[in-house]
Protein: Toluene monooxygenase
Organism: Actinomadura decatromicini
Amino acid sequence: MSKPLAVIGRLQYDAHTRIIDVETGYTMDQVVEACLAPAVGYQARHPKPGATLLVRPTTDTDDAEPFPRTMTVEEAGLRHFQQIDVFVPQDQ
């Protein structure tokens, strides 16, 4: 059974972080959509329209490996209020 969880989303090139409600059953693609919804068109732009966005845990060096797009929040082991980055990979 999927459970609600709040993460702190940091969208590439956006000066704001946001608390994003997700479900433990969401895939990383669904997490991306949840992070974009309150930001793009309001306070931020899509980092690169048409490009695929990925999710990774936030680190001091911004170099953590992204989660696979089909991995769920539960499989990734994300915790309540954990900060994540939503970003365009360099090869796009």
The radius of gyration is 12 Å. Strands lie at 4-11, 17-23, 54-57, 83-87. The longest helix spans residues 28-36.
